[in-house]
Amino acid sequence: MYDHHTVLIDFFEAIEYGIDTHKDEVIKTGGDLKSVKFLRYRNLTDCIYVRPTASRAPFYLLLDDISPDAAKAHRQKPGRLVCETSPGSFQAWIRFDQPLSYVQKRDLIAVAKADPEAHPTNDRWGRCPGFLNQKPKPKKLNSDGSRFWARLDVITKGNTSIANVVSLLSPPRSVFCSDGVGSGLLNVVASSSSFASGGSKSDRDESKAEYCFACDLIRKKIPYEVIVNKVAHHAQKRGKRRTYELSRDYAIKLVDGAIQSVRLSA
């Protein structure tokens, strides 16, 4: 972990650690070496996170829940920190040579086909390498049933130019919804060779589509319940959740996140 601390400082320049107590909050701690022993103790039960300090955060973008293929592609690009957070699931931090706006980060997350529910605000936490994944109900464990140590996959030197990345954004294309309210409104940014897409259409793609669909309807001032019901129906139809009640819970969380996104980008 001490070596991890050194390389994290080198990549982010200034960091802060966070402790997730599984109560919908992350307790911020210091970002110096003295904090590490305390964090190791807290990691017996809690998840440990890391992020750049507020002054550096606009220069960094976190891509959450990316595939092994996407992680492999990021290893070849400058200004990357890739962490395997659970078996076969990765996060990637991208370091830019100038600050990014919320809208720019949101669009790049769409292009990268990362988790759209991980809102690109400047206070985003990433899982800290070198600590156990202590989620209460982790989806993935090691083959022997033990919990996974978040693994530092790679750090690359240099920065990424936002001008080069943004120039690769393609015109949006309609991918979802053909009946009733919101017909033809859903637009998802097309794939870019600058980011690894992770292959064929997946659950991540569908979630992104539902998220963008919700954002479109919110901007059209469609009633909240109508949006939730439409997302829940689509999620249930594609097998996102086992029951409609679970699909509706998923839809409420997604629509609430979309509302926040639309407000921040307004």
How does this model look, in words?
By secondary structure, the protein is of the alpha+beta class. It has 2 domains: 2-163, RepB DNA-primase, N-terminal domain (Alpha-Beta Plaits, 2-Layer Sandwich); 170-265. 36% of the residues lie in helices and 18% in strands. Strands 2-1-3-7 form a 4-stranded antiparallel beta sheet. The protein has a 4-stranded antiparallel beta sheet with strand order 4-6-5-8, sandwiched between helices. It has a two-stranded antiparallel ribbon with strand order 9-10. The N and C termini lie far apart (41 Å).
Instruction: Record the strand order, biggest sheet.
Output: 2-1-3-7
Q: Enter the CATH topology name of the largest domain.
A: Alpha-Beta Plaits
Using only CA atoms, what is the Rg?
A: 19 Å
Alpha-carbon distance between the two ends: 41 Å
Compute the number of strand runs.
Answer: 10
Characteristic terms for this protein:
2 domains, 266 residues, 10 strands, alpha+beta, four-stranded antiparallel β-sheet, Alpha-Beta Plaits
Short description:
By secondary structure, this protein is α+β, with helices and mostly antiparallel strands. It has helices at residues 2-12, 35-42, 68-74, 102-112, 162-166, 203-219, 224-237, 244-265; strands at residues 15-20, 26-28, 47-52, 60-66, 80-86, 89-95, 126-127, 151-155, 173-174, 187-188.
Layout of helices and strands:
Blueprint: H1 2-12, E1 15-20, E2 26-28, H2 35-42, E3 47-52, E4 60-66, H3 68-74, E5 80-86, E6 89-95, H4 102-112, E7 126-127, E8 151-155, H5 162-166, E9 173-174, E10 187-188, H6 203-219, H7 224-237, H8 244-265
Antiparallel strand pairs: 1-2, 1-3, 3-7, 4-6, 5-6, 5-8, 9-10
Helix pairs in contact: 6-7, 6-8, 7-8
